[in-house]
Write a structure and sequence with these properties.
Layout: E1 2-6, H1 10-21, E2 28-32, H2 35-44, E3 49-52, E4 55-56, E5 59-60, H3 61-68, E6 76-81, H4 87-92, E7 97-100, H5 105-122, E8 139-144, E9 147-152, E10 156-162, E11 165-170, E12 175-178, H6 182-187, E13 194-198, E14 201-204, E15 208-213, E16 219-223, E17 228-231, H7 233-242
Parallel strand pairs: 1-2, 1-3, 3-6, 6-7
Antiparallel strand pairs: 4-5, 8-9, 10-11, 10-14, 11-12, 13-14, 15-16, 16-17
Amino acid sequence: MNVLLVDDEPLARDELAYLLQQNITVNTVFKAEGVKEALALLFAHHIDLVFLDISLNEENGFTLAKELHQLNTPPLVIFATAYDKYAVQAFDINAIDYVLKPFDQERINQALQKAKLALSTRLPQGPPSSPAPQKDNQFITLTNDERTVVIKTREILAATVENGELTIFTLDGKKYVSHETLVWLRSHLAAQHFIQVHRSAIVNIDNIRELQPWFNHTFILIMTNNQRIPVGRSYLKVLKTRLNM
């Protein structure tokens, strides 16, 4: 299985990653230090299981856990934390286990076995060589004031959120405003063509023209229509990987 571990403490991340890699059921371990980086990885890769800390700098692991339910196939969640007081709340959102720090191999193996059993009952059985096709919707629809607009997803250049409004920009220079969320839009787009680069922006990776340095060691994207979109620091690593940088 592919596992994502989310923890803002580098030593804790490395320790848990090591223990996970000792278990033969684990194929790949992805690591994130916060909610934004975790969401970027979840949209870019198929993740079966998330080991999630609760205290993430100024963020909260429950925020990410609730976002997962909006994905087409949400991963399983195991909370891995130093606090035992949130266990009831964790199971209220259907976490399959709750592992306390400091970690040890036996306890991690037990948690992984639970995940393996849960995945085997949830996913359809079939040969490993026949994975389910990736979702690639050809259209999305936006309804405002009793008017429904049909947009071809391959013609979406970028989308941004500001003041609670989602704006979608298309290759023909048009823009469409909606009260839908960025998470909703991302769930309808093919991950191989779109990437979240900021907490309030998604872009069509095929229409990125340049990645330029910006102020305070940040970066900005220049799209093929000359639109400029800032890149959030927590999204930069995944973006560079997608761009083979």
